[in-house]
Amino acid sequence: MNSSGSHRTLTDPFGRTVRSLRMSITNRCNLNCIYCHNEGDHGSTGEMSVETIVNIVKAAADFGVDRLKISGGEPLIRQDLEEILSSLPPLRDVSLTTNATLLKGRASSLKEAGLDRINVSLDTLDPGKFRMITRCKRDILPSVLEGIDEAVRVGLTPVKINMVLLKDINEAEIEKMLAFTKRYKGDVILQLIELMNFRDAAPYHVDADKVEEELLHHATDVSTRTMHHRKKYIINGAEVEFVRPVDNTEFCANCNRLRVTADGKLKPCLLVNDDLVDVSHASPGELPDLFRLAVSRRVPFYGHERCSLE
Ligand SMILES: Nc1nc2c(ncn2[C@@H]2O[C@H](COP(=O)(O)OP(=O)(O)OP(=O)(O)O)[C@@H](O)[C@H]2O)c(=O)[nH]1
Ligand SMILES: C[S@@+](CC[C@H](N)C(=O)[O-])C[C@H]1O[C@@H](n2cnc3c(N)ncnc32)[C@H](O)[C@@H]1O
Ligand code: SF4
Ligand code: SF4
């Protein structure tokens, strides 16, 4: 029986049971990062109402999907985020991925509204490199750092720092970033991310095998997460998670997320756009069958013939 008291689950043709929903709530963003994949959704401008979001999350919860990741665009741009959070059904884990430029002064209201934790995209601690990566002329790095402090203070923890590895930009900064996270004594975790090739970002790609070798060399313990079989390394008492989404059969074979686009479409895979299921106008009664349809279209992107066809 799942947490909502139902025996129903969503399992795709490859045996992958959906455990979490990754929902974009806006495509708008106040930054313009050089590599942004925008959750695989480019061009759509519509946004779901609070009611539509809540209906979708409830329908997922009825299938035992009790983890929600809110993303975007920049989700903090939506002023009704607190209203969304406080209207959700009870879930095991509600998290937000944000660039944190608008977090300062808001962490506490997000926590009170029901947010459990946040991930903050922070690729560098160097103000000049930060401006280059985000293509933002203003010096907003200090505000991001204050936002992180505030999130830790109000208990939006563990805060994960998302660092996309970028050749000749931040690849030499891993140690510095690790020292930064260690200052928070377990409340902040470093998450290293292999760059996926969006926006002609290929020249910035860093060899993930080399990074992994380095992490292994320094680690005192290594474990594997259920989701994507991501590896977690303990280095000098601090946790480092490594996300390797590129050409990774194991990563996709263990993908347990269903996505929702900002304009209300169920999206079976980050990298595929011809299989979306529109639920933006669906009634609560119609949602279960639409979820089943979307999940029947889920294909592990790497490790299946589809990816060699595209
Ligand atoms: N290819 C691919 N990349 C993903 C998927 N889910 C997350 N990612 C990438 O993982 C990195 C971290 O994403 P976050 O939004 O911080 O979330 P997360 O780490 O996946 O989730 P939590 O660990 O639950 O906080 C980003 O680069 C995402 O693009 C996925 O299903 N497929
Ligand atoms: C698309 S952003 C949306 C949320 C928010 N605006 C932020 O930046 O955290 C979600 C995550 O995707 C990551 N991301 C974006 N483009 C990527 C790429 N090409 N390869 C790997 N990760 C990427 C970002 O670093 C961020 O952690
Ligand atoms: S802040 Fe997030 S959504 Fe905005 S451009 Fe950067 S990665 Fe993309
Ligand atoms: S199948 Fe692979 S690429 Fe597609 S969403 Fe899942 S992990 Fe990402």
TrEMBL record:
[4Fe-4S] cluster 2 binds at C252, C255, C269. One of its GO terms (biological process) is Mo-molybdopterin cofactor biosynthetic process. [4Fe-4S] cluster 1 binds at C29, C33, C36. S-adenosyl-L-methionine binds at Y35, G73, S121. Pathway: Cofactor biosynthesis; molybdopterin biosynthesis. Residues 13-236 form the Radical SAM core domain. Belongs to the radical SAM superfamily. MoaA family. This is Probable GTP 3',8-cyclase. NCBIfam families: moaA_archaeal, PRK00164.2-1. Its cofactor is [4Fe-4S] cluster. It catalyses: GTP + AH2 + S-adenosyl-L-methionine = (8S)-3',8-cyclo-7,8-dihydroguanosine 5'-triphosphate + 5'-deoxyadenosine + L-methionine + A + H(+). It comes from Methanolobus chelungpuianus. Binds 2 [4Fe-4S] clusters. Binds 1 [4Fe-4S] cluster coordinated with 3 cysteines and an exchangeable S-adenosyl-L-methionine and 1 [4Fe-4S] cluster coordinated with 3 cysteines and the GTP-derived substrate. HAMAP family: MoaA_A. Its EC number is 4.1.99.22. GTP binds at R22, K69, T97, K160, R257, L258, R259. Catalyzes the cyclization of GTP to (8S)-3',8-cyclo-7,8-dihydroguanosine 5'-triphosphate.
